[in-house]
Protein 1
Amino acid sequence: MSGSVPVESNLEKRTRDTRLGVWALLGVVSFLLLAAQIAPARTATAKLYVQSREAMGTKFTIYLYAASEEQAEAAFEASFDEIERLDRTLSNYNPDSELSRINRLAGRKWVTTDPEVFSLLQTCLGYTIRSGGTFDITVGPLMRAWGFFRGQGHYPTARELEQAREKTGWEKVQLDAETRAVHFAVPGMELDPGGIGKGYAVDRVVVLLRRAGVKVAMVDAGSSTLYAMGAPPGEKGWLVRVPKPGDLSKTISALLLKDESLSTSGSYEKFFQLNGRTYCHIMDPRTGAPVEGMLQTSVIAADGTTTEALSKPMFVMGTDEGAKYLASFPHVAGLWVTGKIDSPQVVPWNWPGCMGDCAETLAGDKERKAKAQ
Amino acid sequence: MSEIDRRKFMGNAAGALAGALLVAGCKEATKSVAPYSGPQVRLGIVGVGSRGQELMRTFLRVPGARITGLCDVYEPRFAAGRGITGEETPIYRDHREMLAAKDIDAVIVATPLSMHAQHIMAALESGRHVYGEKSMAFTVQECDGIVEAVKRTGKHYQVGLQYTYATWYRDTLRLIREGKLGQITQINACWHRNNNWRRAVADPNDKKLERLINWRMYKEYSLGLLAELGSHHIGFANQVFGGYPESVVGSGGIDYWKDGRETYDNVQVAYRYPGGQTLLFSSMTTNALEGAQMRVYGTEGSAVMTEGDGMLYYEAKKLKASVVTRVLIHHGIMTGASYMPEMPYRGKGEAVPLPEDVAGNANFLACESFVRGILTNQRPEADEHAGWAEAVSVVLGNKAIEEGKRIWFRDFAGKKSGA
């Protein structure tokens, strides 16, 4: 395990990474470095540390301010141990995981699970019902029918689709709260909590970081779910940029995030084209087909579990139905990018960010702000 | 926003549904099966550290198991433990207080090694069954004492050698006993890691807390890598060879992590069994290429066991001279191109098949078996005798490492316990 390094030295070595979150956060970090040069006294007591590890099929990165390397190390260790524990518990690739045990046995009998996994499944079911079925962690067989697990797209036959739909749907998953048990009414079903697991992991890390005495941090789960804890010295929040779909060098909106989470779903990384139509990997569980005409959705809410559970339903529902859905939650904001990749339409709802490449105007430091103007 | 608490989060979106979560599904499917409605086994745990917490989560996946007591001397563990049970589980700062409670049927012991015997004995004497983490105990005398206490109280004791319950280990052991791998002559086992084996301590200047959290590093509490990482391999070798070793030689040292620790950062031991077989075990903290594995070598084949699966490889068949008729001489010998499509050395190997109706990792299968054993009055397979053989091997292996000489088991163990 490598030791945690102050961000300064890490940045010097780092080559440009085009992933959304890292790119956005590098914006934050380089800005902070400039701010630190202008006002060194502000960062004299705490340094910004960073550590990354691969888990849950992506890369988790944690930035945090700590008074010493020991404090940073302890906070990173607690955080990544927890992420790895959740990965071992919820992975549907690892045959040893609790989720794999449920998937293997719940088609034959009721399977009791621990309070954490059971409550996560209850939460999923809550979101499924509330979202009219647009959030659904049983869509694995449909994804397979459309070829998304084989790495190449495939238009399923009517029979393939029918078979996949028979094994899909939350109404066929039974939960018994008394015994914390799960049962599939139809054999061959599978649960894939990928649509909420990273957000939940982010929330658990936030709890542990606070317990470790960390006050200011950014938890980044592969850029698709971020949580900003507190604000960097001299700032009102952590600067986050939302990129133009398909072009990470362009910003369509920038905002300051503080004590809240942001999740983004996009269709432009995994998709296939057939007969002039583009099929993305985000499934509409109601129709059994991939969503068309939507490029990207971003959502802000109090915690990572909520934002992750809202970003895909927003994507599936579209702007009108999606805005109504978001309005049923407190303190939530959304941003849709619809249409075609070469002529995207940006649709904000209750969105606090500035639009376009406006990150400079959000600078907390007066001198920098004045410079930007 | 205030701290996101997991339990608050649980109540968040799904709260309204919590009371009525039995979703009406396909009624035909539910006829044949129903959620568990049998008796409960109420578990108290001593030692709510990282391993204790993992055991708690695992036990809570077993139908009928409930955690009804948390005992620790480090205050933050209580919140962590209650976070896992999801309820206001009673807490105890002394194991005797917990054993005085009426709502506990069995006790999980996950304390530092040097405290195992004290906690196991007290639990057994109070009439509780015990699931005790490996290694069973710290000294040969303590191991003898536990065997005697189990006999006296009639309670179940299961040692945390969870691979005893892993299907791929059980199947491999069955194949070995059926002679599929021939005569087993040697097992090479290792658990190699690449980290300092330390846990972060909230206050690095608090020396008492450092010893408490990093107890594995200090000889007062720990028998080091051999106990913490070698127990499983030793336990399995004892099953394969039967009984326990007759002698051991060892070496090791603090050669890389010179950070004030007392237990070695690398150890190597060679155990000899009465049947003329050998177990080699190595543990290092500076390279993780091999990970945790065990290679079982027999005259007809080999088994390679990991934490998640097993692979079998068979030796090339030994050919015997065969008699040829004189027809060959009359017919002549054909000449042509020499070609064989593939000549793999041992082939790809054959996976030990995983059964359809059993799923779960080794920890789950061990915990499930312990609970089922209590409910059905069946004694554990990884019992006090398996624990004795494993722990005595660890104690004497460590003695060989420390003293740098061959240790004969007959000089230190075996007569009193009858194990």
Note: The two ends of chain B are 59 Å apart (CA to CA).
Protein 2
Amino acid sequence: MSLTRLLAVATKEVVQILRDTRSLIIVVVMPVTLMLLFGYGVSLDLKHLPVVVWNQDGSQQSQDLVKRFQSNQYFQITGVVDRYSKVTRALDSGNAKMGLVIPWNFSQRLSQGGPVGVQALIDGTDDNTANVLIGYTQAVVQSYSSQIQLDWLERHGQSIPPGAVNVQTRTWYNENLESSAFIIPGVLALVMSVIGAFLTSLTIAREWERGTMEQLISTPVTAMEIMIGKLTPYFVIGMFDVGICALIAIQWFKVPFRGSLLTLAVSSALFLIVVLSLGFFISVLAKNQFAASQIALITTFLPAFLLSGFLFSIDQMPVVLQWITRILPARYYVSVLKKIFLKGTPTVMLSADLVPLAAFTLLLAIVATRSFHKQLE
Amino acid sequence: MFGRLKQMLIKEFIQVLRDKRTRVILIVPPILQMLIFGYAATYEIRHVPTVVLDLDHSQESRDLISRFTSSPYFTVEQQLTDSRQIRDQIDSGDATVGLEIDAGFAEKLRSGQTAPLQVIVDATNSNTALIASSYVTQIALGFAQDAQQDRIDRIAPQLVTQMPSVVLDQRPWYNPNLSSRWFFVPGVIGTLTVVLVITLTAFAVVREREIGTLEQIMVTPIRPVEFILGKTLPAFLIGLLDVSLIAVVGTFWFQVPFRGHLSVLFTGAVLFLLCMLGVGLLISTISSTQQQAMVTAFFFIMPAIVFSGFGFPIATMPPWLQYCTYLSPLRYFLIVLRGTYLKGVGMDILWPQMAAMGGLGVGLLTIAILRFHKALD
């Protein structure tokens, strides 16, 4: 291997990147865009859910119950309706997520004693929102019911002390339950998948498509030199982007960073080599830019988005899928990211993630080199 | 005109379908993505690993714990003896929820005081944490309610039957089992269409430009309108075919109900495809290489998906971002998809979405065609 030839290949690649202004913009703008997009756009912190109320009763007691919903930050009463069809329409059109129906004999039944039902018609389309909504609604109704019972007992000369369970929840690592703290560290993996696999596979597929790869091969440059020379500039760009992303995460979005910067750099470098090798491998296989871009999407971006634990918990997936995630480098990288950002896990305890990640790095680098060699023969 | 258009269409179809790889890419990845999405994308929470520290050892504390053991949401993995163990278990990620019942829990409850239940939740995944703590609260409230009932029963058994109470009758509409799959599968149809149709249209034009055949075509008697139609019609038809394919696979494989009218869904799909063709064409006018086209497409696709309400509720975004979501055609198509699939609503509800997509589609196509003419001059 000659350093001069390697440098020549790398220089050519750098010139090519620099000349293509759009690519250059992309490597700087894309990470920032993705960070802002996910930082601001992705939040699961539900509040002020729109509710329509159909209070058939209109009594003092039913008003009290409605007031409890009104003063609760999770609900926002957007309409008071007087017909069932209006509740249906509000839910059908998505203008309300819940219809609260208080029966006409609500106060009458309460004074007679025994249980009275209050109906909550919930838009279950989005199961997550519905679940959160049910939880909050139950809490409101139960606390109202307890109050009613205590008042009633008091009126009947029985003063029974309330006795309740006070749930004291402490949320660790992400004390304010910020979605951004949960999502943003994983965006780094997305950014690198795009830079690594997308950009490289396209660039190199283009060389194949235009036939310039054959020209390059016919020069004295060896396969190894071509590969390293072509990938090094992208590696540098990738590491630069990791820096930008980490900076935005910590400084702009105030995501806590509790681990070691060195571990962040090392694991990012490993993952970057994985995606770069993969991108190179894909381009050798596909040799056509459309095919390369689609394969890169399926093999890098999609796993990083769906199967890495970035957004959806791996332990909630079907067992078969959980096994599949074990062969995805993105899973280990995202796990490391979340641990060093939020948990501050010491590097020694990250070996369960770092060792497989390193193994994949080695494996993919070898596979990519081999396939390229074979192609040349 | 029709003769030339026909020739152009034949050429386009041959070009797309000639290559076996491209043929495979049009069919396999969309189906694969549908399956992975269907299985992986879930916000549901089941069997959250839970550890319990019971320092009270009373009837009451055991009763409370058994409510967690029998709940489908929690899997009580271990009963601990020391509060340090909770920290270890949660730090290592072996447990997500830790419950601690202090000594004196039953004592306080019996005497009508408020008995604390300490809950520690790993909030690395803020959504899991939020929903898990809402389930904890529900279980604890139910327990407290029953405990109160028991006490009243002991003190004044004659009153229990007459005592009023309010019970919540919750009815999740459209998705009664609150399945994440029902929420995501219709959405995936829209998301995959975005990726496929935009890249297909953009690549079809840019490839000709990149290889230099665009000039050749332009010197033939073919007119720009015919050229544009010749490029967009195949993408439109392939897009429509792919939508149907993904829809059929998703619907039958995951058993998602389809409650509306196919005609409504197809009207929506056609309008949506118009928007996507417009975007694809627009991208092709501002890109000279396939790589640029791909990356520009990516810049459109990511925000379009994040702002669509596909996986992240629009209501939780900052207000200024909520206005941006009106620009994403996918936002409207998702409402149509979920409306026809789960809600079974028709044009009377969905016309605003249809109108918005129609408007956006015509607007985008007009801009694209104007720009295209300019690019040719």
Note: The radius of gyration of chain B is 29 Å.
